[in-house]
């Protein structure tokens, strides 16, 4: 195979050598010339602007001054020696000071010469000075990397700096790399696509990302490189999807039989919303195409995903297949199981549950029934995907709360059958479109964007600590009306001890405000055993307690329609999507529900925006967009294993348009030329061939 010079180990680049090469590898993951080229500046310093000396201000960051060295002298004794030079322009003069490398500086800074001086001005003894400024000859010599008007700034580390690989040192290496090897940079995106979107070639882009000719050239370079990043992610995702669809036949669910019909006509206690019907129709279409369905259903809390899941499972049953539903925690699994059993009441199908706490005896029995095909619907935790669990004929897997299941776990499910089951992934955490396209770009996405009719929007208030008594008063009123209340405290690993103290203090205050025997309180937190949690939760569900104090989101994943108030303590410490999830625990019954966000008086700008957003809107998708803007994708669940975080330039919050272009280009390309046989797509073919060697798709099947 052709090996590019750019694959040469970085050690051999002039000025690197073995020691620095080792550091580059360890500190920045740079192994080859190409890696260094792909190590982009994280910002640029504007060097188009020259400051006059009388314009200097201690508030200014780095500045650039053009002036003449009018004096130069070494002063001080031995260890305190320094070199002081005076730089003068037509508005005044300023001191330049060096404490190190005096000999070198003395030889290279020439009295009477004009220099471009660059540094951070500070005030010392009432006048301005710059210590350790950078000096450049004036006029700047013309090189291939141009007269740098925007100076690149690279990330570096303490260790690298010790070996002179600070930003400036890295810039030097980039310069020589580009000067010597620009010619060898090859195109990765087919030229017809570049033309279509009027994007610059790879050479020009890389040159300008490191050494922008001007702002316009930098923007063009950024756009091209962002496109490239997103384009290849989409190509990979959509190509995988296409392969999967070509290779795997899917079970045919072409009968809508007695089970679905009876459920719909006689059992379902409400009319489905338009959105629910639409999503069920999409699932129907998927499962009649003869390909394996991989569909993500996004729906806000309370949008009625369970009904959609159950209808789909019954559809599988009607066609002679088993179905299973997997939840991220035991509590949620139990709850799903319970609500299905409550609805079906032993009619139509046999439903069973399997979790980590199922006994050995239960398991043995269950395994037998499952293999014999006697169980139609199995609900459980990830215990479901253990190899011991064998289905007779698994046709559909519903995964609730996708983000907790990795790609690997999904793949494991596919292996459960010769023909892999259809997969329906449900998530109650709405994620922004751009993130969905990247995280779940190989899935089809349905959205339940409508709440059941008659549901009253939850009213949200933000109260400060000083208004706590008002909050207690309100709780009392609601409890008097027969309602129940959740109070959620943050419990974060880093501050766990302190958080637990707050929790205790909170509970003490609460038991003073809400004394026995009139008020009963359930307490559930992460440090308790499953059995204890279960017991406390059950008391709340059975309305034996009126108040549920809890710490984490998932522990309150219960459905208690009678609960009408959600109080969130230290609300400013929760992320937006968490707050939204928590709020979704109320508003499940017919009554008007409330969410009270308690916070201290001091709020950060972000914290304030989060609480304001919560008060302003109930729409999970809107909230998720703001969350992405505030936090970036890094903190949004599911992104960790997805590669989204390895994006060098593209920003899913800001580059929606580019992502859209990249994705639609890939869709178009693959539909016109599915096997990428057209010579104009040869670059893409090569890319995928290289990639697929590492993660052979067959492994998944
Ligand atoms: P989620 O999407 O959060 O999982 P659920 O499926 O738990 O929502 O539904 C929330 C509540 O709304 C449940 O009590 C459910 O019975 C009810 N529900 C679901 N769909 C409808 C509908 N179309 N009309 C009325 N109530 C509905
Ligand atoms: Mg649900």
From TrEMBL:
<dbReference type="Pfam" id="PF00271">
    <property type="entry name" value="Helicase_C"/>
</dbReference>
<comment type="function">
    <text>Plays a critical role in recombination and DNA repair. Helps process Holliday junction intermediates to mature products by catalyzing branch migration. Has replication fork regression activity, unwinds stalled or blocked replication forks to make a HJ that can be resolved. Has a DNA unwinding activity characteristic of a DNA helicase with 3'-5' polarity.</text>
</comment>
<keyword id="KW-0413">Isomerase</keyword>
<dbReference type="InterPro" id="IPR001650">
    <property type="entry name" value="Helicase_C-like"/>
</dbReference>
<dbReference type="InterPro" id="IPR027417">
    <property type="entry name" value="P-loop_NTPase"/>
</dbReference>
<dbReference type="GO" id="GO:0003677">
    <property type="term" value="F:DNA binding"/>
</dbReference>
<keyword id="KW-0234">DNA repair</keyword>
<keyword id="KW-0547">Nucleotide-binding</keyword>
<keyword id="KW-0378">Hydrolase</keyword>
<dbReference type="GO" id="GO:0006310">
    <property type="term" value="P:DNA recombination"/>
</dbReference>
<dbReference type="GO" id="GO:0005524">
    <property type="term" value="F:ATP binding"/>
</dbReference>
<dbReference type="InterPro" id="IPR004609">
    <property type="entry name" value="ATP-dep_DNA_helicase_RecG"/>
</dbReference>
<keyword id="KW-0233">DNA recombination</keyword>
<dbReference type="InterPro" id="IPR011545">
    <property type="entry name" value="DEAD/DEAH_box_helicase_dom"/>
</dbReference>
<comment type="similarity">
    <text>Belongs to the helicase family. RecG subfamily.</text>
</comment>
<dbReference type="InterPro" id="IPR047112">
    <property type="entry name" value="RecG/Mfd"/>
</dbReference>
<feature type="domain" description="Helicase ATP-binding">
    <location>
        <begin position="286"/>
        <end position="448"/>
    </location>
</feature>
<dbReference type="InterPro" id="IPR033454">
    <property type="entry name" value="RecG_wedge"/>
</dbReference>
<dbReference type="Pfam" id="PF19833">
    <property type="entry name" value="RecG_dom3_C"/>
</dbReference>
<protein>
    <recommendedName>
        <fullName>ATP-dependent DNA helicase RecG</fullName>
        <ecNumber>5.6.2.4</ecNumber>
    </recommendedName>
</protein>
<dbReference type="Pfam" id="PF17191">
    <property type="entry name" value="RecG_wedge"/>
</dbReference>
<dbReference type="InterPro" id="IPR012340">
    <property type="entry name" value="NA-bd_OB-fold"/>
</dbReference>
<dbReference type="GO" id="GO:0006281">
    <property type="term" value="P:DNA repair"/>
</dbReference>
<dbReference type="InterPro" id="IPR014001">
    <property type="entry name" value="Helicase_ATP-bd"/>
</dbReference>
<dbReference type="InterPro" id="IPR045562">
    <property type="entry name" value="RecG_dom3_C"/>
</dbReference>
<keyword id="KW-0238">DNA-binding</keyword>
<keyword id="KW-0347">Helicase</keyword>
<dbReference type="Pfam" id="PF00270">
    <property type="entry name" value="DEAD"/>
</dbReference>
<dbReference type="GO" id="GO:0016887">
    <property type="term" value="F:ATP hydrolysis activity"/>
</dbReference>
<dbReference type="GO" id="GO:0043138">
    <property type="term" value="F:3'-5' DNA helicase activity"/>
</dbReference>
<keyword id="KW-0227">DNA damage</keyword>
<feature type="domain" description="Helicase C-terminal">
    <location>
        <begin position="467"/>
        <end position="634"/>
    </location>
</feature>
<keyword id="KW-0067">ATP-binding</keyword>
